[in-house]
Design brief:
The chain is an alpha/beta fold and about 650 residues long. It is about 30% helix and about 20% strand. It binds 5'-O-[(S)-butoxy(hydroxy)phosphoryl]adenosine. 5'-O-[(S)-butoxy(hydroxy)phosphoryl]adenosine binds next to helix 13, strand 20, strand 24 and strand 25.
Length: about 650
């Protein structure tokens, strides 16, 4: 197989710095005995049964697992409620404990205790009921980072109504596609959200989306910005959040749901076709997110935890909402950008509140490195005791910088590998046990089983070649299907290597058994930790009307990990100029959202294809990256490549 970033793996193989856990950390750690691994290996169902004791159930399970590959049922016939586990069960002892310390971008703040959250969730759940939301109905949520976002999610969970959160950076078209696929009945949004001092027009986008979503009956609007948002109002359809909850009782009993009841749908990009609705159910997901939060982040009653991810992505679902809140931890939530009002906003917040655990993305760390150490150095970061990363491979330089500049060499780093599909962290250090190596996510979490295989599905020996990363046994927080598309679930994930879950990632095991994740081996890009399918960007380009054919590839990017390059063949008569380039970029932003904006657009009369008409993406990547061309003998028309290469070179490396 081929991989995009062999240089990174080479760096890792040469990496000889190791960081054993400090004695002082290990002594206080939730998990400090490596025997947890051996125990889980010996009987993984017993391990996951024990883990389930950390969740409150209304009815216990008959069996831990029913597995008819690839169909799983965990904690069979048990009943529980996710909202109850995140709120009610903490109230007797910790009702007055802070659940959320929220910081708005403009500088306003709010603090909500667990009792406050429980009250608001119940009032809002009653509000949702009053507009007809029932168990099983899908509710779409399109919001910014305000406390009402987790409140809305937990209110849905309370009623057994699966939520589908759509990241606030997505376009109206992307929102409409997701609403239509899920057939959501209600949309929850807000007037606007603050980002770098500007208003993200969420309500305006929602209006545009809902014009094409017949299933939506009501739009609930949380007022965050006020007058300045300057929104339109449809009195038959729109209802203010504050009007919906006015007069509602703060008692709304949590609906007991089956362990396999759908908790949520979250859309993620794939190789072909529209984004896939990843379905997570309740019991296994709660067990998985709960125990990984507690063990990987070493959560203590006294911690102040901050996961900087937007809740619109799975990291926010699992490690802002369900994992941390089911552990009753106090957390910080921040609305805006890391450089507003200045590039030290994160460090300022950490100092101000005494954050102890920070979970963020490699792309952010590389951005902070670029901005310079003077920003973190202006602040007292001594409260930090543990650091985490997620979303993409972290290069050893960024890892070491994070360790030294942010962690002052005293905070273990957990590099956590997982996916929207896995629901919870799968490969990670346990901070009180694992000796870490910069750039490696180390080993599977206890009770999780990984294997690197070759094209034929045979295990690749440790320390040898790279291969495909698979998971060989089911795990509780695994996704159960793709919403309304079970065939695609089987096809995409379970058919390449029968009996094994195919992650879509390439990986290599180091001599010591640690995993080094290389990145996607399919046509999925990882731009600033966000998954974007090449197909989606290509169809957005073709949708412009000016494009006959497009091929999108990922380029190495020092900050974002990857950036997007598009090779475009224009329709006859369309001028290949700078204006057209701008127009196409804007069209992609309009169709998908700013995260999918191509960095480069390269016009070409033809695209290099194999004799079976498959676009040669690797070749395009090599061209766009200015690398030496490899073997082109399988090209239908080798002249095309040379033309492309010349064109690219005449444009200069960065366009
Ligand atoms: C893909 C999943 C999991 C939440 C955020 C992304 C890449 C994720 C790591 C890591 C190397 C990583 C993989 C994976 N990835 N974490 N620690 N090291 N790569 O969720 O959008 O579902 O993307 O992100 O390529 O397949 P996602």
């Amino acid at each position: 197989m081929t991989t995009d970033t062999p240089a990174q793996i080479e760096a890792l193989l040469a990496e000889n710095r190791t960081y054993p856990p400090a004695k002082a950390f290990t002594e206080q750690a939730n998990i400090n005995d490596p025997k947890v691994y051996a125990e889980a290996d010996a009987d993984y169902l017993a391990f996951w049964e024990k883990a389930a004791e950390n969740i409150d159930w209304f009815q216990r399970w008959d069996r831990v697992l029913d597995w008819d590959c690839p169909w799983a049922k965990w904690y069979v016939n048990a009943q529980l409620n996710a909202s109850y586990n995140c709120l009610d069960r903490h109230l007797a002892k910790n009702g007055n404990k802070r659940a959320l310390i929220w910081e708005g971008e403009p500088g306003d703040t709010r603090t909500l205790t667990y009792a406050d959250m429980a009250r608001e969730v119940q009032r809002f759940a009653n509000g949702l009921k009053s507009i007809g939301v029932q168990k099983g109905d899908r509710v779409a949520i399109y919001m910014g980072m305000v406390p009402e976002l987790p409140i809305a999610m937990l209110a849905c969970a309370r009623l057994g109504a699966p939520h589908s959160v759509v990241f606030g950076g997505f376009s109206p078209d992307s929102l409409a596609d997701r609403i239509n696929d899920a057939q959501a009945k209600v949309l929850i949004t807000q007037d606007g959200s603050w980002r770098r001092g500007s208003i993200v027009p969420l309500k305006q986008n929602a209006d545009a989306a809902v014009a094409n979503t017949p299933s939506i009956e009501k739009v609930v609007v949380y007022q965050r910005v006020g007058e300045k948002a300057n929104i339109q109002w449809n009195a038959d359809r729109d209802i203010w959040w504050h009007d919906l909850v006015a007069g509602q009782s703060d008692q709304c009993p949590a609906e007991p749901v089956d362990s396999e009841h759908m908790l949520y749908i979250l859309y993620t990009s794939g190789t072909t076709g529209k984004p896939k609705g990843i379905v997570h159910t309740t019991g296994g997901y709660m067990v998985g997110t709960n125990i990984t939060s507690k063990w990987v982040f070493d959560l203590k009653d006294t911690d102040l935890y901050w996961c900087t991810a937007d809740i619109g992505w799975v990291t926010g679902h699992s490690y802002v909402v369900y994992g941390p809140m089911s552990n009753g931890v106090t957390q910080l939530m921040y609305e805006g950008a890391p450089d507003t009002p200045d590039k030290d906003r994160f460090w300022d917040l950490i100092e101000k509140h005494g954050v102890t655990i920070l979970y963020t993305a490699p792309t952010s760390i590389r951005q902070f490195m670029k901005w310079g150490t003077e920003y973190p150095e202006k602040h007292d970061l001594s409260s930090l005791r543990l650091l985490g990363t997620v979303g993409e491979p972290i290069n050893p330089e960024a890892w070491v910088w994070y360790n030294e500049v942010i962690g002052h060499g005293k905070s273990p780093i957990v590099d956590t590998w997982w996916q929207t599909e896995t629901g919870a962290i799968m490969i990670t250090p346990l901070p009180g046990v694992t000796t870490t190596v910069p750039g490696s996510a180390t080993v599977p979490f206890p009770g999780v089983f990984a294997q690197i295989v070759d094209d034929q599905g045979n295990a690749v020996p440790t320390g040898k070649a790279s291969g495909y990363l698979t998971l060989t046994r089911p795990w509780p927080s695994m996704f159960r299907t793709i919403f309304n598309d079970p065939d695609r679930y089987v096809q995409t994930y379970w058919s390449k290597f029968p009996g094994k879950y195919f992650t879509g990632d390439g990986a290599k095991q180091l001599e010591n058994g640690y995993y080094a994740i290389i990145g996607r081996v399919d046509d999925v890009l990882n731009v600033a930790g966000h998954r974007i399918g090449t197909w989606e960007v290509e169809s957005a380009l073709v949708d412009s009307g000016d494009v006959a054919e497009a091929a999108v590839v990922g380029l190495d990017d020092v900050i974002k990990g990857q950036s997007i390059a598009a090779f475009v063949t224009l329709k006859p008569g369309v001028e290949a100029d700078e204006q057209e380039r701008t127009k196409l970029k804007q069209h992609v932003v309009k169709k998908i959202g700013a995260i999918a904006r191509p960095e480069q657009i390269i016009f070409t009369a033809d695209l290099p294809k194999t004799r079976s008409a498959k676009i040669m993406r690797r070749l395009l990547r090599d061209i766009a990256q200015g690398r030496v061309l490899g073997d082109t003998t399988t090209l239908a028309d080798p002249a095309v490549v040379n033309e492309l290469k010349q064109k690219y070179e005449s444009m200069g490396a960065t366009e």
